[in-house]
Amino acid sequence: MKESKLIFCLVALFSFTIVFGQAKKPTLMIVPSDAWCIQNGYSMTFENQGSTEKIADYKRAFQENPEVLQVISQINGMMADRGFPLKNMESVIKTISSNSAEDNLRQSKTSGSEIAENPIDEFKKAAKADIIIQLTWTVNKTGPKKSINFNLQGLDSYTDKQIATATGTGAPSFSAETPVLLSEAVLSHMDNFTNSLQSHFDDMFENGREIIVRIQKWDDWDGDLETEYGGGDELGFVIEDWLQENTVKGRFNTTDMTENMALFEQVRIPLFNDRGNAIDARRYVRDLSKFLSSAPYNISNKLVMKGLGRATIILGSK
Amino acid sequence: MKRSYLLFTIVFMLFANFGAQAQWKKGKAHKDTTIWRYDIECEGVAKQGAKLVKVWSYSKNPKHAIASAMRNAVHGIIFNGYAGGGQGCTSLQPLLKDPSIAEEHEAFFDAFFEEGGEYLKYVSAATDGSIAPGDRLKVSRREYKIGVMVNVMYDQLRKRLEKENIVKSLTSGF
User: Fold this and answer.
1) pLDDT grade for A19, boundaries at 50, 70 and 90
2) Which tens digits make up the pLDDT trace of A179-219?
3) Bridge partner list, A233
4) Does an H or E element contain A201, and which?
């Protein structure tokens, strides 16, 4: 009986370690680049305060171009084989529009109330992922000879950094069709791409997740980041000191600081908190939010997040 | 009766000798190329999950160089990678970027690369076995450099090393 209890305890402890030993896994999604969309006519043009702007029309690209589906499907397959299935952008776009239609029709059975939604909620209904894999290719033609110029960029959605890449020109061919050349290009570049992605993850596990922290203030708050507290330090410096103490190896950059806003980039946060739970930008910045709302500062604030890697604190009220 | 004993002894000794000689030849081929002296280059885009490479092995005996080509190809993919080039080839980083990890797993690699070892599961000949005249070079009076084209099952090899915790998988830690 005692033995079985001991075994049970050991198994429970082991499962606990496994559950809490995993960092938050980023989501990945392949997006055809703006350059490719505009070059191939999958774009929309509109007037913005006197200047003409073009934006990519992804929906039409997916519906009308079978080559883009082929490349995305092949990359998806290879990434799934490495244990990293990607979000399929075409499906995400469809899900967003069907969810939106459902939300518009939904009503409470008892009160008849509709789903609460403000303009920000509406704005946030967009296809997103933590890492965007931007895909571009061009077909080079010299007489009957064809080759493919292929470029795959892994971009961190929050820091805007390119974290992985694979680019190059394939072997020229007189007879091969474009889909065959594209397939060869994917095959020859994917290992390099996953290798550079692996280096990024290795760096993340060693030096912490890189996030962006923004501090803003509501217009009606009478304080600002230059307001002095307790020992005479301005609020901006108080926040910097907190970051210094709570980042991995004290690594962060103060990119901008005015009386109304502060922007901290390359903030390296630990992947797990003291209890061993995986954390992201929101969970990390929540501690700063609590710190600012407690004595001696007593600043009520609102915490806003964007994915795994970006969080904003707006000072003054919720 | 005596005659039959004699015949049996002679036949037995002959077989034993052939076996020993074959073993000795294998051992010599292994010893000849054991210092991992080879060049590896990409030969084009292979099927998904594989790498098509040409391995140039050095040996005093051309047969030894051919025999060790497969072992060298797998070793090259794990420890050296290759530079890009023609035929749509892009450069490839080695599976094992940190040489100190190889020292930590010395026993595994010794067994993996031993004569007839596990490495044979991850490599196959890409040609019918004949060596093109341009791939058989005499580099000095007593040494040959032989180029052999082989297919290395890259994805399977990587998964095997991931299983042994020698190489990190893309999902490790998540």
Assistant:
1) very low
2) 889 988 898 899 989 999 999 999 999 999 999 999 999 99
3) A229
4) helix A178-207
My answer on whether omega of the bond before A144 falls inside 30° of 0, hence cis, is no
Q: Which of B87, B92, B169 sits opposite A83 (nearest CB)?
A: B169
Length of chain B: 174
Q: Is A272 touching B (CB cutoff 8 A)? A: no
The tokens 């203030």 sit on which residue?
Answer: A217
Our CA-based measurement puts residue B81 at a distance from the nearest CA of chain A, in whole angstroms, of: 11
pLDDT of A297 higher than 60: yes
3-state secondary structure of A279: coil
Distance in angstroms (rounded) separating the CA atoms of residues A296 and A238 = 11
Higher pLDDT, A21 or A225: A225
ipTM above 0.90? no
Residue A149 to residue A135: CA distance in whole angstroms: 11
- Token couple for A61: 């690209």
A109 pLDDT band (50/70/90 cuts)? confident
Chain A, 167 to 186: residues with Cβ < 8 Å from chain B are: 168, 170-171, 184-185
Query: Furthest-apart CA pair in chain A: how many Å?
Result: 82
- Rounded to whole angstroms, how far apart are CA atoms A30 and A57? 15
How many whole angstroms separate alpha carbon B102 and alpha carbon B172? 19
Position A154 pLDDT exceeds 90 = yes
Buried-state track A239-272, b at ≥16 Cβ within 10 A, e below 16:
bbeebeebbbeeebeeeebeeebbbbbebbbbbe
Q: Do the Cβ atoms of A131 and A28 come closer than 8 Å? A: yes
Buried b / exposed e over B69-99, threshold 16 CB at 10 Å, is bbbbbbbbbbbbbbeeeeebbbebebbbeee
Q: How many residue pairs bridge chain A and chain B with CB atoms within 8 Å of each other?
A: 56
Contact B166, B159 (CB under 8 A): no
CB atoms A189 and B89 under 8 Å: no
**Pairing mode, strands A253-257 and B123-125:** unpaired
pTM: 0.81
**Domain map (residue ranges) of chain A:** 28-103+113-205, 208-315
